[in-house]
Amino acid sequence: MPTAFDPDLARRLLDAALEVAQRAWVPYSNFPVGAAVLTNHGEVISGCNVENAAYGEAICAERNAVTTMVAVGQREAAADAAPSASGAVPAPVPQVRAVAVVGLSAAPCWPCGACRQVLREFHCQHVIVEDAAGEPVILPFEQILPHSFGPEALGEAAGSEATDFEAAGEEK
């Protein structure tokens, strides 16, 4: 289970999410959302939702922030990264220490199911939203996506090894 999260840092992440939410492109839903991802390197990477007339082609703020994190090269080798039985060494995986999500039209604004799954892929530890009074609500990631599916469920067939979730005692 992740350790406690600093409330001052949570507020700074929420402020970053609020700032980027104001740049969201939402001509169809009028529901702007911003997200700020805190990497294990301490970098804050923000993203907002971007809609499209072909609704399925829209991207949520959280996934926008995560894809940006990957694009800028945030990678961290697992401390216990060992070669698999086939000899392959796992590629370093970008790590999300926390994500803060702000919806300008609703509070709290929790990540959708697709975003939760993407955040899980990158080992998200904490989710931070604002309550109706604007105060931070900080939850361990496992509380918003219990019994999750991850790369380790694909096993050796996909070239995956155990992840930090498995090492931390989460069952497959």
TrEMBL record:
GO biological process, one term: pyrimidine-containing compound metabolic process
One annotated Gene Ontology cellular component of this protein: cytosol
Highest taxon listed in the record's lineage: Bacteria
Gene3D superfamilies: Cytidine Deaminase, domain 2 (3.40.140.10)
GO molecular function annotation: cytidine deaminase activity; zinc ion binding
Stored Pfam families: dCMP_cyt_deam_1
Domain CMP/dCMP-type deaminase: 8-152
Chain segments carrying region Disordered: 152-172
Listed Acidic residues bias regions: 163-172
Family, as annotated: Belongs to the cytidine and deoxycytidylate deaminase family.
Protein name: Cytidine deaminase
Species name: Corynebacterium lowii
Gene that produces this protein: cdd
